[in-house]
Design brief:
With 343 residues, the protein is α/β, with parallel strands linked by helices. It has ten helices and 17 strands. Strands 8, 9, 10, 11, 12, 13, 16 and 17 form an eight-stranded mixed β-sheet that branches. α1 runs parallel beside α2.
Amino acid sequence: MEEAGNRVLGLPIAYEDLDGGSEETGSWDAEREQANARYAAADPDVLAYIATLDADAAPHSIPITNRAGLLQISPCNTYPGLTRRFDPGEPDKYYPTGRRTYLRTALPDDLQGSFAAHWAKELGAESAVVLHDTEPFGRGVALPFADRCRELGIEVVGEPIGIVPKQEEYGELAERVAASGADLVFYGGIIQNGAGPLWRDLRTAAPEAKLMGSDALFEEAFIADAGHHAEGTLITFGGVPPALLEGPGRAFFGRYVERFGKEPESYAASAYDAMGVVLQAIEQVGAPDRAAVVAAAFATRDFPGLQGRFSFDANGDTDLRRGTRLTVRGGHFQPLQVLDIEG
């Protein structure tokens, strides 16, 4: 917005930050997310709702913005069912008008799950225990990981296990994992649902097992929560971390550090691109017309994003297919390799 002079169509851009989180739980809150979406939808001057942060919150706002014909675009929602079938009734149940109004600049987790499974195969894993936090995001990456593991010849011990979220300890579960003899444990879920305590107990009970997780763990909060137990964790990210971006992305990284005095978080570049898509759509339409802005955004082709040029398909998904392998080393995230993602 600053780089656009905080104006579009010659008019000032009004940006309002809406918090959908709960201080009591330390995570997203369904009622607050619905209230935020209703607030945005009710204001005719609002042309885009850039949300949500947590994929698990998105099902609570997409139907509201959809009924209002308001463009919703997320930089970091990765649950597959938001745009295509994953669970029964998805994704149609999120779009009561029958028309799509939701886009994302993040990679869906069925692709990331497959990406992680191929890494597990390369690491020589012969068996794996798969855990998730029972929420859509966690299941959305864990179940595809398990499916692809089986296809690649990696034994998945039993069925994927849904942990009880937000527990202070997972000793009993960790002992079950250790008793299985699996050489790799994969967790799909957000940090706030117990990743730190889970890691501490898994490291204690099964110190030889490799621990792997998806992009939800790619936040400093995970290292702070898990402490030294985070060391050696293997993490996949559906995209390219800001520090590894090239060309315009590298310039963005430098501007961000200069402007804010710290490195951008994992999805900052994706958020930048989401705003860019919104501003371009409004400029193309030339008027504050919600329906036209939705159509223009969906018609985005060959957009010069920070992670590469991309287009949206009819479902609202980007066609970018790059992923990053990372580990935790010395208390910091250490990128290992950026690769093209199959599928």
